[in-house]
Amino acid sequence: MPSTGATTRFSRPRFALLVLLGVYPLITAILYVIFPLTVDWQIWQRTLVIAPLMVAIMIWGLIPGVQKIFREFLNPASR
Q1: Looking at the DSSP assignment, which residues form a beta bridge with residue 58?
Q2: pLDDT, tens digit, for every residue of 7-40?
Q3: Contact 26, 54 (CB under 8 A)
Q4: pTM for this one?
Q5: Span 70-77, mean pLDDT?
Q6: Distance of alpha carbon 54 from alpha carbon 46, whole angstroms
């Protein structure tokens, strides 16, 4: 069956850029909240708190949001 529309291809570089733009302010905000509460903690202990929080926010919030909002930007028409 012939295709009726232009084919698209997912752009990993564009996706990486958008995720970076979302992760940077997110991790900065988390650090501002967590650091004052964990002044006497070792870095590995802070990371143990921050990493699961960051992963959960990315998996259930940031990444689905980026894919939904920027669908056309992430899937440009193939040449």
Answers
A1: none
A2: 889 999 999 999 999 999 999 999 999 999 999 9
A3: yes
A4: 0.78
A5: 92
A6: 12
The two tokens of residue 48 are 């143990």
**Nearest partner of 34 among 44, 46, 43, 22, judged by Cα:** 46
Name residue 12's amino acid.
R
Contacts of 7 (CB under 8 A, 6+ apart): 77, 78
- Residue showing tokens 């259930």: 60
- DSSP secondary structure letters along 5-73: S--B---HHHHHHHHHHHHHHHHHHHHHHHHHHTTTS-HHHHHHHHHHHHHHHIIIIIHHHHHHHTHHH
d(CA 51, CA 45): 10
